[in-house]
Amino acid sequence: MILLDGKKTSADIKEEIALEVRELKNNDYKTPHLAAIIVGNDGASITYVNAKVKACERVGFESTLIRLPEETNEKELLNEIEILNVDNDIDGFIVQLPLPKHINEQKVIMAVDPSKDVDGFHPTNVGKMALNLPTFISATPFGILELLDRYNVQTSGKHVVVLGRSHIVGSPMSILLSQKRTVGNATVTMCHSRTKNLKEITKQADIIVAAIGIPEFVKADMIKDNVTIIDVGITRLADSSKKSGYRLVGDVAFKDVADKCEFITPVPGGVGPMTIAMLLKNTLLACKRKT
């Protein structure tokens, strides 16, 4: 069993980006600039955005964090987005999700200039991704592709089972892995809450991408030997034996399945760290498109 170490891989990617940024600066090119808008005081979102700002500092990016109060209305948020859309110094920006319930997330996503949409959520970028055209691939699927690539996990001709059909992970992964690309050319089955005979399907899989948000759902009796498992889920479970009072688990029962796997991502330390690294990679790409 080989661990697909997202923590180490993301650190390697950040070093590569930092080197490229130094070269840009030495040649008097623009320094990449990533901005983030956060609305409200969601603890997980604040932690995540702060990690993005810290990552920008590490690789030599400029970063801007715009914090708006919970009561910010939709029109005010759309105004902030438009300011970033027309600011030539900003190469890419994200609006941290989830947003307060009184704001329409889809309307906000649609308002972001696709050329600055480094989250890859705008329909223009999703459409280009589906057509295998150059674009921003959303950070989590992009990170999974990079992990598979750097560990030389063979996908061509393999049967991939994707658990979950979210617009952020499940749907794009099913499209990307079926495309003609280095990490692709797979036969993909996408499963969801209405799928029948799920265990029969997962037991045929050479690669499983689990992104359903149900802790420790995938068990050993659902997989065959030498499978590769990409665990996208992360859930806090109460655990009095831990100093924090909880433990983090994925959608896969790691201890139960690990011995049957050829490759597997840990939780934490697998897919999670890759997401920020690929957001930085998208921002660098956005900056270089201007040069």
TrEMBL record:
Residues in Tetrahydrofolate dehydrogenase/cyclohydrolase NAD(P)-binding domain copies: 138-290
The protein's Enzyme Commission number: 1.5.1.5, 3.5.4.9
Keywords assigned: Amino-acid biosynthesis, Histidine biosynthesis, Hydrolase, Methionine biosynthesis, Multifunctional enzyme, NADP, One-carbon metabolism, Oxidoreductase, Purine biosynthesis
Superkingdom of origin: Bacteria
Record-annotated Tetrahydrofolate dehydrogenase/cyclohydrolase catalytic domain positions: 4-119
Pfam families: THF_DHG_CYH, THF_DHG_CYH_C
GO MF annotation terms: methenyltetrahydrofolate cyclohydrolase activity; methylenetetrahydrofolate dehydrogenase (NADP+) activity
The keyword Hydrolase appears for this protein: yes
Keyword Oxidoreductase: yes
Positions contributing to NADP(+) binding: G164, R165, S166, I234
UniProt pathway: One-carbon metabolism; tetrahydrofolate interconversion
GO biological process, one term: purine nucleotide biosynthetic process
InterPro entries listed in its UniProt record: Aminoacid_DH-like_N_sf, NAD(P)-bd_dom_sf, THF_DH/CycHdrlase, THF_DH/CycHdrlase_cat_dom, THF_DH/CycHdrlase_CS, THF_DH/CycHdrlase_NAD-bd_dom
Reaction it catalyzes: (6R)-5,10-methylene-5,6,7,8-tetrahydrofolate + NADP(+) = (6R)-5,10-methenyltetrahydrofolate + NADPH; (6R)-5,10-methenyltetrahydrofolate + H2O = (6R)-10-formyltetrahydrofolate + H(+)
One cellular-component annotation, GO: cytosol
Assembly and oligomerization: Homodimer.
Family: Belongs to the tetrahydrofolate dehydrogenase/cyclohydrolase family.
Role noted for this protein: Catalyzes the oxidation of 5,10-methylenetetrahydrofolate to 5,10-methenyltetrahydrofolate and then the hydrolysis of 5,10-methenyltetrahydrofolate to 10-formyltetrahydrofolate.
Protein name listed in UniProt: Bifunctional protein FolD
Species name: Polaribacter porphyrae
